[in-house]
Design goal:
The complex is a heterodimer of chains A (318) and B (259).
Chain A (H helix, E strand, L loop, with lengths): L2 E5 L2 E2 L2 E2 L1 H10 L4 E8 L3 H11 L4 E6 L1 H5 L3 H14 L3 E5 L2 H14 L4 E7 L5 E5 L4 E7 L5 E4 L14 E4 L12 E7 L13 E5 L10 H9 L3 E4 L1 H5 L20 E5 L5 H4 L7 E6 L12 E4 L2 H15 L1
Helix pairs in contact in A: 4-5, 6-9
Chain B lengths: L2 E4 L2 E3 L21 E3 L1 H17 L3 E6 L4 H11 L3 E5 L9 H15 L3 E5 L10 H9 L2 E12 L2 E7 L3 E8 L2 E5 L11 H7 L4 E4 L1 H4 L13 E8 L7 E4 L4 H11 L4
Classes of the chains: A alpha/beta (318), B alpha/beta (259).
The structure holds flavin-adenine dinucleotide (FAD) and adenosine monophosphate (AMP).
Flavin-adenine dinucleotide sits at the interface of chains A and B.
Chain lengths: 318, 259
Amino acid sequence: MAEVLVVVEHSAGAPKKVTLELLTLARNLGEPAAVVFGDPGTAESLSAKLGEYGAAKIYAAEHADLTGYLVAPKATVLAALVGQVSPAAVLLPSTQEGKEIAGRLAVKLDNGLLTDVVDLAADGTATQAVFAGSTIVKSQVTRGLPLVTLRPNSVTPAPAPATPEVTAVEIALTDKDKLTTVVDRVVEQKGSRPELTEASVVVSGGRGMGSADNFKVVEELADLLGGAVGASRAATDSGFYPHQFQVGQTGKTVSPQLYVAVGISGAIQHRAGMQTSKTIVAVNKDPEAPIFELADFGVVGDLFKVVPQAAEEIRKRK
Amino acid sequence: MNIVVLVKQVPDSGSERGLSADDKTVDRGSANNVINEMDEYAIEEALKIQEAHGGEVTVLTVGPQQAAESIRKALSMGPDKAMHVVDDALHGSCALATSKVLAAAIGRLSPDLVISGAESTDGRVQVIPHMIAERLGIAALTGARKLVVDGATLTVERQTDEGYEVVTAATPAVVSVWDTINEPRYPSFKGIMAAKKKPVETLSLADLGIAADEVGLSGASSAVVEAGKRPPRQGGTKVTDEGDGGVKLVEFLASEKFV
Ligand SMILES: Cc1cc2nc3c(=O)[nH]c(=O)nc-3n(C[C@H](O)[C@H](O)[C@H](O)COP(=O)(O)OP(=O)(O)OC[C@H]3O[C@@H](n4cnc5c(N)ncnc54)[C@H](O)[C@@H]3O)c2cc1C
Ligand SMILES: Nc1ncnc2c1ncn2[C@@H]1O[C@H](COP(=O)(O)O)[C@@H](O)[C@H]1O
């Protein structure tokens, strides 16, 4: 069976959830082979978890150059690997870095590229949700192999235990791969909340929150539900919440089991980032707010009364 | 420092968008077409660098005839001139082909710095800047929320999920920017008048030495095989808070097993 290369995204010694989704999806197309980029020892530390989700092989690309320069070295290593193993497909996460690696790889191989894919069939046909999720398209790569980036939270990871064999990958870089140096990586806040794009529950606040301080109301509900906190652009632009938590057209696309919109009107650009959520709940004092058109359950009322009461009720039930 | 700013015309993200029924490409005919929002931040950043360091700012667009409107609009913010690659054969180009055309055009302008938006609102692929850098063999510093120019050295702060990265490279380079980097200026009346007289060079594919079958639908490296509207979401239950809205909300969450 042909190998399917899966580029592993990992943080703090564990593969991210999207990696497990990719391994699950890869099994439709062939035998998953995980590609790990990192400092020496990284692949070994991830191998148990990668094996649990079906990685039959792990290619360890371990060298300081791979993390010391932006993206380009990873694409070079991947291109060489594609040449060696002739995989059935190459799958990456649809994150900023995943797309950037994929873009460079597409140029190197003169190979088509499909981004933000939410499903992938055995014949390589990809499903994408475009234009704020309003249009569903099926596409195929028509030149080269399926080179696909998967949007996080699109597939339910399913274990399929395997015992991966770890193979070191030869790393041959040129000066062109080392043009952009990473001089610093700053971890700003890594709280206990799940990551926004991977969370199964997201509670977002909008302009209706009124201030940064008031976001506590949203954070409290998110924590009781084990969820992540998001924000509308009006809220991030007003400085109520940090920009990286923005959901929508120009922010993150989320697709959780439950999305709670608090004090958010539901502008088309906000919907763009959340309308594929399974269940949507909204709290807004304006009965005409467009967010109610997509909410499975909506409460018309003052968020400062409704949300704290909901939090209290959840606490009671626990 | 000579700068090329990449400006793409896209259908307004606030309006209804779709694919045309016949060839499943982005429907630009019926849409309200505007400058891709992130590209306005790219223009602003280029103008700020020009104000501090001198040099020339050139707008570069690959797109249909009607994109000329967006080019004028871009010029009214302050850039000196523009290059518009327009050719019927470009219709339906994939990202790979678009990057080839952009790279060829940039090659003719040989700037010190290329600034683009981080992503376009229609495709949202976020790949063009790295594709161009790969083709030209120059550095890419993408997703900037801050850019510092010090002689030939560029330093960028880019947002990550955990925080941010600081990356650095020497010119020539491609930098892509997010909307957190600055506040784009509004064109002044004087700017609008001046834009009418600014030179816009129009190039065809032949001018760039690119064959028609390398781009467009025929040269595309991927294809849409099926497209349909997602059934609109149906609104569900809506209750008005009468002192128990929070409790009702939790009852709903419990019925869906979230609590
Ligand atoms: C190119 C482009 C890209 C964009 N990208 C994004 C994006 O990525 N994400 C995004 O979110 N937006 C984006 N926008 C902006 C978008 O158009 C809206 O302006 C934005 O989503 C509005 O945010 P909001 O709903 O929080 O604010 P508003 O629209 O001002 O809504 C606030 C809501 O809060 C309610 N409210 C106020 N007080 C209370 C209270 N006490 N209790 C209950 N309800 C209350 C009000 O009734 C109102 O409905 C983009 C716009 C453009 C042009
Ligand atoms: N046809 C085009 N003409 C000019 N610039 C473009 C074009 N396509 C993409 N770009 C630039 O590349 C950026 C990223 O686009 P994308 O990779 O399509 O998301 C955009 O913000 C533009 O600055």
